């Protein structure tokens, strides 16, 4: 439920919780410490008064709230003398019974104690008292807590004001900080909504913190999505254009044959053209499906194992030399590549098939540790076309879509290899290299 609130509401709840904790936890601790300090001060005041009385033979007079009442007890005569105690012997008796009587008896009967400090309650009022042995007599000083209560209240109020002032300033700083976070987050949300609605929008994040990093990442993501959208549009255009030709030929020639009209002179020649375009159409569709299927295969490959790729290359070379009537030179070391053997078969066949279309006289395959080079002596590739060479649906020099090279790139990437085209002094080399772990 807490997470369903906005950041500002969450912060206010946290501040309210801190305020409650301040009252419930901190203030009792403060009160306890303040009482201890006040107790120490009161006993210190009583001690100072007693020392003055002993040293200067001085008995303090009544001074309203700060009055120290002094009583002298002579145990030999069991007599009390008091200088500034209001009332009479009755008051003394009450104070003795309810306040200091037990402690006085304890110090009189004990040889180990010369002083006793304590406090007690009489007539709903707390009194501090200190009993000190002086020669053969006992000096009893008593002080009301009315002064200490007022002092405690003043100190407590000041502490409360200070704490809440600090908490208010702290809360204000936090609120301003959260607002500074909310504003860019709202800008990011608006920008993301514009992406979802395919609307034009800009996002400028003049921040170097994590929010700025996220904002810039979203801008980069949008740019990448726009590139992919553009590629998708070009793909649809190119696919529709490339598939339109064989479909139109099949439809036109099929109708002509049905009407006993043979565009190539006889029925067999005309049907051969129809079958040839059907094969072209089938090849293109299979390439599209295979390229799409590789996206799912990459996620399913759980364990990648090495296999001897030299044997695979020799088998492919033998087949393609026989089928396409070309000669392929080889320089193959006995090494292993990582991945699915059938996928690598498709990749190598596509590269060799591409090389056979552009070669002048020779194709050469070189296999070394973690490196495979397939070279042909055809014309060099234009530098402005090398960047998009392995992108899908980009039409090549001879009208080919480049689906084969896109499939090759995806297979290599699946198994941790890079592929690039490199112009040589004469010809072009396609080079596979294993990425560093």
UniProtKB/TrEMBL annotation:
Occurrences of domain Histidine kinase (ranges): 238-437
Membrane topology: Multi-pass membrane protein
CDD domains in UniProt: HAMP, HATPase, HisKA
Record's subcellular location: Cell membrane
GO annotation, cellular component aspect: plasma membrane
EC identifiers of the protein: 2.7.13.3
Primary enzyme class: transferase
Keywords on record: ATP-binding, Cell membrane, Kinase, Membrane, Nucleotide-binding, Phosphoprotein, Transferase, Transmembrane, Transmembrane helix, Two-component regulatory system
SMART domains: HATPase_c, HisKA
Principal location class: membrane
GO molecular function, one term: phosphorelay sensor kinase activity
Transmembrane segments: 12-30, 159-179
Catalytic activity as recorded in UniProt: ATP + protein L-histidine = ADP + protein N-phospho-L-histidine
Pfam families (UniProt xref): HATPase_c, HisKA
Ranges of residues in domain HAMP: 179-230
Name by which UniProt lists this protein: histidine kinase
Native source organism of the sequence: Catenibacterium mitsuokai
Record lineage: Bacteria, Bacillati, Bacillota, Erysipelotrichia, Erysipelotrichales
